[in-house]
């Protein structure tokens, strides 16, 4: 039975027969009110400045989402360790950094009353080779991207001390995010990054207490949640993004996800976001590698509906949502929040348009590459370019060229990686 959160203003639970409207507020277990049911899901912006600090463009970009009327803004992933980045444009937040640019970012995002959470992450083995660091992972299982695999660094297995240090880093970063004026953090435990690597039997081959049974594989996530919760005030929100499945044969599956949520029920988590996939199987873009077919829109809705039946915290699902009817359909299934990424990058004003009952659907970019991996990279490059345009005070492009976006992205990454490598030499 759901006991710990309510859908304001009526106080009805999210399983009420009549589903809440898209523009009704949601009260989280810690009492925080999210003003409506639309969340801007995390999108890595690749907008770190020197020293991997937030560039001023991040605040400008985020103001677009604030004005656009979402109830919750989740930032692109911010890395907890300067020596463990996914890509060279990633922002880092660790103890002792100047918080001024983070404050400006949080302030712009909060300017229209939305809740603003920083997504905090460790990439584990999903780190680009060009960064010059190994990928620190539960086990030495390399990312398999076929002929593109060499783009990703070789992994090394973490030892007990390193695992403890990473848990502490998650807590430190959350505390800094709170000090900088964010209203919460979302712990990234999805998409094949470090926490998700611990959860998956394909990437976690450890024989110690961090691997093997589900109870052992989930230990790292539970310890991170507990350390983060213990580092911040109760009013500061703590969310977790997990995969509903890896969508790879033998991987973390939907029964595992159900078990994880049950284990999170008593951990003080305010929201669980459900997504799916990894670099190897980008289900978050609708592609699977285990033969399963996802819904054409709201990819993970079926899983989210089942999980919300056992969850004591509200559930959000993200992936493939771009029409108002679909967003309302998500809420009607007992899911409390609708996460949207791509459609908001293309059109940050979509929520306001829907609120004014004007007919408008979100759009997804059309990518026509046959190579699935290249298609996935192109998709990310096109959307990141839109985010960067918002940061430059420009409007998103309706028909951005995929080829141009990839070339531009590669050149940018080359330059950013060079800057990062010289800076990172001073960090160890
Ligand atoms: C450019 C880009 C960057 C992304 N970066 C992140 C990220 O930093 N963290 C994360 O959890 N998901 C990230 N995602 C995935 C989205 O949050 C979301 O799960 C996915 O795009 C599916 O939702 P959509 O169909 O509404 O785009 C990213 C997606 C895109 C397109």
Describe the structure.
- Helix 3 (160-179) runs parallel beside helix 6, helix 7 (254-264) packs parallel to helix 8 (301-310) and helix 12 crosses helix 13 (402-424).
- Strand 3, helix 1 (56-68) and strand 4 (72-74) form a beta-alpha-beta unit.
- The protein is globular.
- The model is unreliable at 1-17 (pLDDT under 50).
- It is built from 13 helices and 14 strands.
- The protein has helices at 56-68, 100-110, 160-179, 194-199, 214-217, 219-231, 254-264, 301-310, 324-332, 342-346, 350-355, 372-391, 402-424, and strands at 26-27, 33-34, 38-40, 72-74, 78-79, 91-92, 115-121, 135-137, 155-157, 184-189, 237-243, 271-275, 315-318, 337-340.
- The protein has one domain: Alpha-Beta Barrel (TIM Barrel).
- Strands 3-4-7-10-11-12-13-14 form an eight-stranded parallel beta barrel, surrounded by seven helices.
- 54% of the residues are buried.
- It has 428 residues and is of the alpha/beta class.
- The structure holds flavin mononucleotide.
- Flavin mononucleotide is lined by residues 41-44, 76-77, 119, 188, 190-191, 241, 275, 284, 318-321, 340-343, 380, 383-384.
